[in-house]
């Protein structure tokens, strides 16, 4: 199915679950920062300097590993062996975190200040982790340089600036609302769609046929409260019986589909429904590949508590197109238009192509926030491009340049013999100093 949809000329984007490496490093950095606050003043300057060096390396290296993971998931086989390095680094970070937790526990049992012995343990653990990271840097740098990946190019021409701005405004609004509201928040408007799923014909030689699941349905994305993660979304689809078809409402109940947005592994968008061999549909369709995983399983994967990669689990396919009711279905059309017009962050026209395209961009950005657990305004440019660019074009660009900026950063990250900060860190210090002056 993946190859069929890719070759059909549709846009394709692969979403990757965020690696446990970056989450582990985030928790680690917070723990170390809290611990350093309790170091006596006589030792604090030295330990703080070591902490900043470690934090700088962790942030850059984990970012590089995240990019390698995403590129490997998109078929770049040159990077698959490098992923094992990320697992090894995760183990080193976990062991270091255990040391920090032990020291923190001892501190809580004492008067609150760290003993000289505890400080020595912290410094030794930091230096050991720094050494492990420095050993990994040349391998990561070489992998990125030789992979042929282009992470610094421009966005593809097909990316719609208008839809990108609209979807960004929608997410920004929901991010602000979530700070004060601890209940599900609708992200963007509701959409009036038709839903399709796959019928596997066992008697037809294993042929695959798309069939109509819900002739009409309400499609919406909700940001839901979650104890473990700040950014968590559900995609909810509810069947509507107001579709011009006969329904025995006494015996039937409207169907409903609820998906954890992180379970979406691939997104296809085609300008024509004929991609699905739907002869009666020539308008655009949005196709989602969904991993068969529960929210708990995805949580465990993100936290590094599961060895099972979701991409290799069973997957199902669903597709959506704009609802095309009868021309005399005026009341329903007016309700749909009213729903969108009343949504202050919508900013879209009632054009059918525009509405489905907006869904595509909202899903992309929501998936990015959910997988990276940070605002779209904080993610790196390289990461954002990977979620916006058409993967098909990336696959065909075999002459793509290497990643000069990230490679340059990694190349500079080497320890000096006298233990001073690296050239990169010195540059950053000068930048910070310059900003303070101005």
UniProtKB/TrEMBL annotation:
**Stretch list, region Disordered:** 323-351, 419-438
Q: Which branch of life, at top level?
A: Eukaryota
Q: Which InterPro entries match?
A: Ran_GTP-bd-rel
Q: Write down the Pfam families for this protein, in alphabetical order.
A: Ran-binding
**Listed GO MF terms:** GTPase regulator activity
From which residue to which does any coiled coil extend? Answer: none
Q: Which GO terms describe its cellular component?
A: cytoplasm; nucleus
User: Which portions of the chain have biased composition (kind: Acidic residues)?
Assistant: 323-344
What is this protein identified as? DEKNAAC104288
Which species is this record about? Brettanomyces naardenensis
């Amino acid at each position: 199915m993946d190859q069929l949809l890719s070759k059909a000329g549709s846009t394709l984007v692969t979403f990757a679950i965020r690696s446990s490496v970056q989450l582990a490093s985030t928790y680690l950095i917070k723990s170390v920062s809290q611990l350093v606050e309790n170091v006596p003043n006589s030792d604090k300057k030295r330990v703080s300097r070591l902490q900043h060096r470690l934090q700088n390396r962790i942030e850059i290296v984990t970012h590089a590993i995240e990019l390698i993971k995403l590129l490997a998931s998109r078929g770049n086989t040159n990077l698959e062996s490098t992923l094992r390095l990320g697992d090894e680094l995760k183990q080193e970070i976990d062991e270091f975190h255990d040391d920090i937790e032990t020291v923190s526990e001892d501190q809580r049992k004492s008067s609150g200040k760290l003993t000289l012995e505890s400080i020595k343990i912290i410094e030794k653990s930091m230096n050991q982790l720094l050494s492990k990271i420095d050993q990994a840097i040349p391998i990561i740098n070489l992998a990125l340089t030789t992979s042929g990946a282009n992470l610094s190019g421009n966005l593809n021409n097909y990316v719609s600036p208008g839809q990108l701005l609209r979807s960004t405004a929608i997410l920004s609004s929901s991010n602000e609302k979530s700070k004060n509201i601890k209940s599900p928040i609708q992200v963007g408007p509701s959409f009036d769609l038709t839903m399709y799923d796959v019928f596997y014909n066992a008697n037809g030689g294993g042929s695959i046929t798309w069939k109509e699941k819900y002739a009409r349905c309400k499609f919406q994305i909700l940001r839901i409260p979650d104890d473990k993660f700040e950014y968590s979304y559900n995609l909810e689809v509810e069947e509507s019986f107001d579709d011009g078809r006969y329904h025995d409402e006494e015996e039937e109940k409207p169907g409903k589909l609820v998906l954890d947005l992180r379970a979406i592994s691939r997104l296809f968008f085609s300008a024509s429904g004929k991609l699905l061999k739907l002869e009666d549909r020539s308008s655009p369709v949005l196709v989602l590949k969904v991993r068969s995983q529960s929210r708990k399983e995805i949580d465990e994967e993100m936290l590094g508590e599961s060895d099972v990669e979701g991409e290799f689990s069973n997957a199902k396919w669903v597709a959506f197109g704009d609802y095309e009711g009868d021309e005399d279905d005026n009341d329903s059309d007016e309700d749909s238009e009213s729903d969108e017009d009343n949504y202050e962050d919508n900013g879209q026209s009632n054009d059918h192509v525009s509405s489905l395209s907006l869904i595509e961009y909202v899903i992309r950005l929501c998936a990015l926030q959910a997988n990276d657990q940070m605002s779209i305004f904080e993610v790196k440019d390289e990461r954002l491009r990977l979620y916006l660019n058409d993967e098909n074009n990336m696959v065909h660009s075999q002459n793509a340049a290497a990643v000069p900026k990230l490679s340059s950063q990694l190349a500079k990250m080497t320890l000096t013999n006298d233990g001073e900060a690296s050239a990169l860190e010195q540059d950053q210090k000068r930048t910070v100093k310059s900003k303070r002056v101005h």
